[in-house]
Amino acid sequence: MSRRHPNARRATTISAAALTLGSAMLLTACAGGGGGGQSPSAEAVSLTFVAGVKGDPFYITMACGAEQAALAAGVDFDFQAPNTFSPTDQVPIVDAVAAAAPDALLIAPTDAASMFAPIQRVIGAGTKVVLVDTTLEDDEGTSASVKTDDYAGGVEAARELAELTGGSGEVLLINFLPGVSTTDARGKGFVDEAAKLGLTVVAEEFAGTDVEKASQIVDASLQRHPDLAGIFTTTDYGAQGTVTSLRNADALRDVKVVGFDASPVMVEELRAGNIQTIVSQQARTIGELGVEEALKALRGEASSGTLEVPTITITEEDLESPDAQAGLQVESCG
């Protein structure tokens, strides 16, 4: 069944009931317009969302949630994203945002250290900044942070893989890129919990957004570890490459796979039985909450600090359940 797992770290982890109620209250209050000072001002407010990379269903789904909340509040919404998940491509976009000086910026930093200075330039221009998804090593001047409880997501992935493999055996971790706060936390949660459960993590490899590289990593790992029992990939890119490699090796379903994020292609592989479990983020909710925090900052209200949204664990059996549906991602806002 679909499960939400809170984490005990020092941040506000939102319960499932609070997420449902809070999202409904946010959209209702924004749409109502009057009473309680829900709108930051009578004048039009502008908000820009800069995602981590263009074309990723996770960020598209987050943008859909943010846009819905912004439009309900009468806020002008703009969405931008770099061609690659890198400061090289993201910095020019952020510098252009600093020059335009919108009232608020939601941003998923592509590097926890390198994006500090560009974001400070935005703050210096008078824009309220809310970090969404990824974060910074130093969040000075930002108004809030809304992200997935990624460490707990990694822990859940280890538990799922342990159950699928019988609680023992060699497993592989395919991560994204070093220095990315979200996937670093997923990887650490997975490794820590796997050790407690008796799984042997033979390696942590990095594939970025390169599906072919992920496939090559699995090819090589199967050669080095012919008894490999399972694989956890912290992104859907890694999962796609994993499935390709296992298919070529005639090892689909023999090697158990737990992926992260329920993008359309991931759901297709889950239905086919090529992936056994998906641990997914609630991308739309993160977008909605990001807008809520931005509006609070513009109204001068106290920040919620860091909000951690729990993951949803999805299997083929419960794919159509309401809980699972909350974790599904889209390729366009429709």
From TrEMBL:
Subcellular location(s) of the protein: Cell envelope
Signal peptide (UniProt feature, chain positions): 1-31
One Pfam family of this chain: Peripla_BP_4
CDD domains the record matches: PBP1_ABC_sugar_binding-like (cd20007)
Superkingdom of the source species: Bacteria
InterPro entries in the record: Peripla_BP_I (IPR028082), SBP_2_dom (IPR025997)
Keywords: Signal
Keyword match NADP: no
GO molecular function, one term: carbohydrate binding
Domain Periplasmic binding protein: 49-301
Gene Ontology CC terms, in alphabetical order: cell envelope
Family: Belongs to the bacterial solute-binding protein 2 family.
Protein name: Periplasmic binding protein domain-containing protein
